[in-house]
User: Fold these one by one.
Assistant:
Number 1:
Amino acid sequence: MPELPEVEVVRRGLEPRTVGRIVESVEILDARIIRRQAGGADRLRGALTGTRLTAVARRGKFLWWRLADADGQDTGEALVGHLGMSGQLRVRTDDPLSTPADSAGPASEGPASDPHRHRRLTLHLDDGSAIDLLDQRLFGGLWTSPLEAVSDGAVAGLGSPDALIPADAAGIARDLLDPATDLSAVARRIRGRRAPVKSLLLAQDLVSGIGNIYADEALWAARIRFDTPGARLSQRKVLELLRAAREVMERALEVGGTSFDALYVNVEGRSGYFARSLSAYGRDGEPCERCGTVLRRAVHQGRSSHFCPRCQRAAR
DNA sequence: ATGGGCCTGCTG
DNA sequence: CAGCAGGCCCAT
């Protein structure tokens, strides 16, 4: 559930608080959060200790920091973060190196009232602040990845200084907030596939950043049912769908993203307000805002889909 | 292309 | 106490 707008809220929060800072130490409370790190904890510490964070960039749901050594030289790799479905990156300005939570044992065993109960990793910075990665379900992660040139030569992502991208994010398509995204080309690729259009919206190698919530919202806005084959849609209709997806994510970003509870928050731990603006997701049993028909929920490819049976007609 | 696994906490 | 939430990875 952090999807594109929520990750962008986090990126914007991290930018002023972390860029220019040097990592003094890396505290790993649960090694599973760095399971994608080649070489494990030693390699991560080696890459980060004494290293300066020089930019925070994002493509789709992938975030990364650019890194420079003590001489100001680019290290050639990035620190990549992904929030999975329950990850949070929080910045603490007061960083007592050992917090009470440390001695309380495993991060998952603190009291429910402890906001840092699910702290998995902390980067201690040279200005006395710290970046905490909290993640209840551990689908997220933090790891380093070598930089490589993007294939189209444009700036790699929002916040990126150039066309270099972490290798582990190179297979991710540009997202709908990226000015270098070619909407017509994305639409043509969607129309070239017979898979259900919702699966195509969720395919991060076609267009990135869309998750289950915004897919359902975009399909509702464009009046397309989730199981319509991509190839059945006109170019015009797919463009309408992509523009609807972009618009709903832009509106969500304006109000700080979608949050159902304290799990999905900005770097200060605050929730966004877009949940109250959702028209389809989680609204099964409620009337459609357009036609009043009761919205339904269907299980589609193992995930729930919310739709209006009248506005979003079935493909035959 | 498709489905299972990773995870934990909450719900029925 | 089983089921559900779901992004991404991986095996089939």
Number 2:
Amino acid sequence: MSRTSLRGRSPASVFSALGDTTRLELVARLSDGKQHSITELTDGLALTRQAVTKHLQVLSGAGLVTRKRIGRESRFDMRPDAIADARDYLTRVSDQWDQAIARLRAAVEE
Amino acid sequence: MSRTSLRGRSPASVFSALGDTTRLELVARLSDGKQHSITELTDGLALTRQAVTKHLQVLSGAGLVTRKRIGRESRFDMRPDAIADARDYLTRVSDQWDQAIARLRAAVEE
DNA sequence: GGTCAGCGCAACCAGGAGGTTGCCCAATGA
DNA sequence: TCATTGGGCAACCTCCTGGTTGCGCTGACC
């Protein structure tokens, strides 16, 4: 279903956003269900705050994460729908392959 | 399990390989379970054979696809294990998020 | 009010990604 | 044998990406 309308967030853009170890790390940290500020996420990352900001923008652009300004800080939290969609996409590819293989096998064996 | 030992193929590299519409298209075509040559895959893609070759190298490097030289042509076919691994990774992230949310909710409500 | 912490914006830079062209090599098949 | 077909290799180009630094702004706190 994915009702929350991830329009424009193509699977490619989601995969691309996940295709970076730093961003995967950020996603891992954000998957604790809590909100995190930028400096908090920067902590322990051997990167500038600006670099982390850019990564968060990429994640946000892919719909993996949402930003919310609270006072002087930007809070980010995960939006798991995009992840679910990406997983569904992979499931579909897998299924397609499985079925194709089954058909080929059946065609040979009969 | 994923016994075929996809060592070195980090999730990030798999996601990165999938993070391109052309490569997603190639994966879609290859998920018919058959082997395809390069010129065959180039057909209808508005790209040079060389460009497609590079994309296939990326897919191969991520373990999504294998090459086999037969006569004068290179045959490619899908290796679905990498896809399954990527999907499992996303499932793990989703589960982690679900559990975290459940814990937070329980902590609030009691 | 002044200071500090948290960010945003813009400029800049090096390296990699995606793509092309040109050339050459090996199989294939008439 | 010889033309054709499928590919590999290398050079080259452009644009995007990941990263930095510098600066200025605003909210929090004493």
Number 3:
Amino acid sequence: MAIQIYNTLTRRKEPFETIEPGKVRMYVCGPTVYDKAHIGHAMSAIVFDVVRRYLEYKGYHVEHVMNFTDVDDKIIRRSIESGDDPFAIANRYIDEFKRHIDELGILPATNYPQVSDTIGEIVGMVQTLQETRYAYAMNGDVYFRVRQDEDYGKLSRRKLDEAMAGTRVESDEAKENINDFALWKSQKPGEPAWPSPWGPGRPGWHIECSAMALKHLGEEIDIHGGGNDLIFPHHENEIAQSESYTGRSFARFWMHNGMLQLKGEKMSKSLGNLVTVDDFLADYEASVLRLLILSSHYRKPLAYNDTVVADNARALARLRGALRPATGTAASGAVVDALLAAASQARRGFEDAMDDDFNTAGALGCLFELVTEINRARDAGVATEPLAEAQSTLAELAGILGLQLRTEAAGAEAAPFIDLLLEMRSKLRAAKQFALADEIRNRLTDLGVVVEDTREGSTWRIE
RNA sequence: GGCGACGUGGCCAAGUGGUUAAGGCAAGGGUCUGCAAAACCCUGAUCGCCGGUUCAAAUCCGGCCGUCGCCUCCA
């Protein structure tokens, strides 16, 4: 079955076809870098990381661009408050975000453009839009003329003049129409600015993404993604600018992830109810967040709380537990056949789910079913070879979701000492000195070393 | 007020017309174990409410209730 993707533009699932066979051009809106990133930002990045990984698994070459908005009102405000250079602030958070991308196991994008590196292209676009009457200048500002764009509103399904009365704050400006939005803003005292035909100024909010997508991916792209809070006005305006500029359709598929919610509200900087990526990673590893995010559909809002996090941490442990080595010797027979059948069935189910608009929750269900089969086979005495085959299917499929199941043996330096302790402990157990043996196990547990006794001896791992 | 999404067992969450409604977490019972842990087996939902369409609906339509998002910066 071909991949089906839900397209916000049509509000339907559509078969995924690329403009150029085998190649996907994907643009995802990145953060405005004026503060620490929270796990909502991580959610968006992880969702599109999985989209990319799955498309690559299916054989596509993916060109993935994620921008950093480093010229913006909030950064300027921060700069004025703190006295720091606005670019220093932006660069600090860009570096931090890139560190998070690495920590969260997100594949690096092909490109991370910044607004400040795209000024020339932006000015050129605005000029052309002005020449073609899609934009007009006014006192050093340039606005997009919404009335000129016949299908304006097609993404958000919003009709002009329908905005709630009184919502608009800025009524001061001399815009032709209340819906017109700034492409270029004239410099105000203390603000960074670049020279332009309209005088010194800086880009408006939406034009950067149009310019960066155009510059790095071309006039028409396959997938444009972001959080669903960007549908209006940001993405709507991107479409207006880009399509008015090129005369072509901008993006084929618009994908939007749902919001991460904390205490029933969207997690956002302005609401102040946020958990930063650093906060999260201080307590849990990245795969827990990824599992949590992928356990529900990307378009739905996701409730975040301590219980859900703890549940997913345990679920991750179960996934990993399936990779424990075989203890038996059966290399063939009904159990082996059933195991291998389960592995290929898991792959089929996984692909069917993922083909259907990246149904990661359904795909995970298939993975857990395989976990059960693997554990059952191990208990039934299946030998290393067939077990390992099913295990590598599991690890491979989990890897498409970006889940790292094979962890690097933590605590390698301590290993000889732990082994020594466990060796002594097994002597104590053999001598039925259980009180002492249990004390060793408990003390190790307190230190984060989980000890498990099996028929073949004791194993340990760091938690 | 406009646009949109969602409401499935204790919690999280797939499934969107037709076999016994996936899966995870938690809980209870059992197997294994010196004990524990892990693992395995067993146990639970008729799908917000009301009405309609249909031979057949969690799944389509209408109404109601509830929650959330966007309409202002936002992943």
